[in-house]
Write a structure and sequence with these properties.
The longest helix is centred in the N-terminal third of the chain and has 34 residues. Helices cover 52% and strands 9% of the residues. The chain is elongated and about 85 Å long. The chain has a 7-stranded parallel β-sheet, with helices on both faces. It has a two-stranded parallel ribbon with strand order 7-8. Helix 5 crosses helix 6 and helix 11 runs parallel beside helix 12. The protein has 2 domains: 135 residues, no CATH class; 246 residues, NAD(P)-binding Rossmann-like Domain (Rossmann fold, 3-Layer(aba) Sandwich), CATH 3.40.50. The protein is of the alpha/beta class and 408 residues long. The structure holds NADP nicotinamide-adenine-dinucleotide phosphate. The site of NADP nicotinamide-adenine-dinucleotide phosphate has 25 residues, from helix 8 and strand 7.
């Protein structure tokens, strides 16, 4: 059983599956959960994505109480709601299984029939009353939240993402697919290509391109060889990054590689994209670490600093040229779990949710946001430390590196 669904809008995790079984009064079966997971993996590319209030109701996780409400609402009002497909799939899978069939087809006999009908009728009326109250309560919440809701529909858009084999790049790829995008993702080599293709459903509209970003112009050449044109890209998220930990900032070879992957490859790709006369949203993944130095990281912070400042400079140049069709968003995240950063018991409270970050990045790009710092309190904390002066920074970051998880 996988614990974390790739497409949470459509799939369920084992706890949610257990809640559905409890609601349907059937026993959860691990082998059926696996089949359910396989089936629902295709859902984002087969069924219509919910919108508006239906989407609002689809967001939070499923409990037995929510399933009961959504079951009723999706029968009468929101026929395309994800919960309808999930419930239908669970029932169909259990009906095809011996034990499941017995449980689902169990019916009262003899003198139990009238009592069961009465109980069922009373239960239905009570459930309808609760569902109506719940519906109006949630509709009020939806109306209040409506002015603050960010656009996140990527239908008809093509999103290019670098470094999709794992970490944040993979998260953005999955979120983009869930939101209806056609995705072009880059991976470093054949092995990463094969591993990722095996994870994704065949129906997913994704094209993977192999590109080694440590090679000069490696990214643009690979895209051209794969007949990807710059005017077909609506949003480009330049996410791939490398960090050599425990490597001196005097290790020039490693620094060159770090700058090539983290900085120059993004510049190469930006140039390729900006040459097209096409509305493009460029997202540069920098780091909040760009605000301060860091020892033993082979110039990672310096490369991110260069990327942020270069991104601002590009924006100024495009503005001066009257190019309003290209927007640039510079993302400076705090820390999140990935191949680059591992959580430790003492530092886990500092880690942001990678999934939420991916969502913020896509919503920010759609809204034409210029800067995204997530979580913002992490940026405030960093700036406060920077205000303490270089001696304080030396002391603080030397200690912080020891306690925060090791990278790569
Ligand atoms: N994690 C954090 O706390 C944090 C904080 C701030 C900013 N960031 C930034 O967020 C971005 C994503 O990082 P992450 O944490 O998700 O890291 P990650 O898990 O280590 O993923 C890095 C990605 O970049 C790819 N990559 C590295 N070198 C490459 C190369 N030479 N050619 C092609 N692809 C290459 C990796 O491919 P392989 O799988 O082949 O290695 C992988 O897909 C990076 O730009 C990073 O600097 C991370």
């Amino acid at each position: 059983m996988t614990n974390s669904p790739l497409f949470p809008l459509w799939q369920v995790d084992p706890q949610e599956y257990n809640a559905i079984c409890a609601y349907l009064d059937i026993s959860p079966q691990p082998q059926l959960f696996d089949k359910l997971a396989d089936y629902l993996l295709q859902a984002p590319f087969v069924f219509t994505r919910p919108k508006g209030f239906a989407l609002f109701l689809a967001k939070p996780g499923l409990s037995k109480f929510r399933i009961a409400r959504l079951d009723m609402l999706s029968k009468f009002l929101f026929r395309d709601h994800p919960v309808r497909f999930i419930l239908n799939a669970v029932i169909a899978l259990h009906e095809c299984d011996g034990k499941g069939y017995v449980e689902l087809s169990a019916a009262p006999v003899g003198w139990q029939v009238p009592f069961s009908l009465l109980r069922w009728g009373a239960g239905f009326v009570l459930s309808l009353a609760i569902t109506m109250v719940w519906f109006f309560w949630n509709y009020m919440k939806y109306l209040i939240a409506l002015p603050f809701q960010a656009k996140n529909d990527l239908s008809g858009k093509r999103v290019l993402i670098t470094g999709v084999s794992r970490g944040l790049g993979l998260e953005i790829l999955l979120y983009s697919l869930q939101q209806g995008a056609d995705v072009v993702g880059t991976v470093r080599n054949r092995q990463a290509y094969a591993e990722l293709i095996a994870q994704l459903p065949e129906t997913a509209p994704v094209k993977l391109v192999i590109a080694d970003l440590s090679q000069v112009n490696g990214i643009t050449q690979a895209l051209q060889e794969n007949q990807i044109t710059s005017d077909s890209i609506d949003i480009a998220v330049l996410c791939a990054g490398i960090k050599h930990s425990d490597t001196s900032v005097l290790s020039l070879e490693k620094i060159r590689e770090t700058f090539q992957v983290n900085c120059f490859s993004s510049m190469e790709l930006s140039k390729w994209l900006c040459c097209a006369e096409h509305k493009t949203s460029l997202v540069l993944i920098s780091s909040i670490g760009r605000w301060h130095g860091m020892h033993s990281s082979a110039g990672y912070n310096a490369a991110k600093s260069a990327l942020s400042i270069w991104g601002e400079s590009l924006e100024m140049e495009l503005y001066a040229m009257g190019r309003k069709d290209c927007s640039i968003m510079i993302v400076e995240p705090g820390i999140f779990e990935s191949g680059m950063m591992k959580k430790s018991a003492s530092s886990q409270f500092l880690f942001a949710s990678r999934r939420k970050l991916a969502e913020r990045i896509i919503c920010g790009a759609l809204a034409g946001k210029k800067t995204l710092r997530y979580p913002y309190w992490f940026a405030l904390l960093t700036w406060t430390i920077c205000l303490g002066g270089r001696n304080f920074q030396n002391y603080f970051f030397a200690r912080a590196r020891k306690s925060i998880g090791k990278e790569q």
